[in-house]
Amino acid sequence: MLLPSKNFWYSLLNGATFNSLAVLALASHLRTMLSDPGAVPKGNATKEYMESLQLKPGEVIYKCPKCCSIKPERAHHCSICKRCIRKMDHHCPWVNNCVGEKNQRFFVLFTMYISLISAHALGLSGMHFFTCIKVQWNECSAFSPGASVLLLIFLCLEAILFLTFTAVMFGTQLHSICNDETEIERLKNEKPTWERRMRWDGMRAVFGGSPSLLWCNPFTGLRLRRLLLLTYGRRGGAEFSV
């Protein structure tokens, strides 16, 4: 759709926009996949560890019977990761990881950038279709008219599918953050025993700091050495870096 093009700046601008969104989406996906979602250390429900907590009389703590760990408030056990995850929202097969306290931000960015890139592709398809109607199809595409129409229809359907799915996910994630309620807590209809952070307080807790463009940056806080350690740790069999 962009090459060959009679308008150099149109192709350059849209090509740069599409590929920039693709890089941001890929970076967000990798950060969600490789980041520790907030895993609770396994097997820490020992007598020595509980004595070190110096619990007050009458104070109650919970033990997960599946992974033998002290279960913090709002933590849930993931049957796939076989770990308890702090503020677990859900286990996402798209990123092969849980979405929890420490990586929810990157999952939100991932859904946002995929929805934006899908909307951009849908807009490009519409522009290309109307441009080809005004001129000869052989002049606006390197493919035959029949192949061009089939490719445009396929791309539009794909863009609509991913735009709908990721936009809905993006909206539900923002709703959960603003209401300080994870998807698991909503489905289980758990009554809040914690002080809820509403709207902007919840957004600041997830994205960090005051509202700024840095909220949209998936590279924030990235350390190459830390990423290599995480990657090496996973190859060595460690499930999470805790």
Describe the structure in your own words.
Keywords: Acyltransferase, Membrane, Transferase, Transmembrane, Transmembrane helix. It catalyses: L-cysteinyl-[protein] + hexadecanoyl-CoA = S-hexadecanoyl-L-cysteinyl-[protein] + CoA. Residues 63-189 form the Palmitoyltransferase DHHC domain. The chain is mainly alpha-helical and 242 residues long. Helices cover 53% and strands 8% of the residues. The strands form 3 sheets. It has a two-stranded antiparallel sheet. Strands 3-4 form a two-stranded antiparallel sheet. A hairpin with a 4-residue loop joins strand 3 and strand 4 (83-86). Helix 1 runs antiparallel to helix 3, helix 3 runs antiparallel to helix 5 and helix 5 (145-179) packs across helix 7. The radius of gyration is 23 Å and the shape is elongated.
Layout: helices, strands, pairs:
Layout (H helix, E strand, L loop, with lengths): L7 H27 L12 H6 L9 E3 L4 E3 L3 E4 L4 E4 L3 E3 L4 E3 L4 H31 L2 H4 L4 H35 L3 H5 L12 H8 L16 H12 L7
Helix content: 40-55%
Termini distance?
Answer: 46 Å
Strand content: 5-15%
Q: Would you count the extended β strands for me? A: 6
Biggest sheet architecture: 2 strands, antiparallel
Average per-residue pLDDT, rounded, comes to 83
Gyration radius over CA: 23 Å
Instruction: Detail the poorly predicted runs.
Output: 235-242
Number of helices: 8
Domain Palmitoyltransferase DHHC: 63-189
Keywords: Acyltransferase, Membrane, Transferase, Transmembrane, Transmembrane helix
Organism: Champsocephalus esox (pike icefish)
Transmembrane segments: 106-129, 149-170
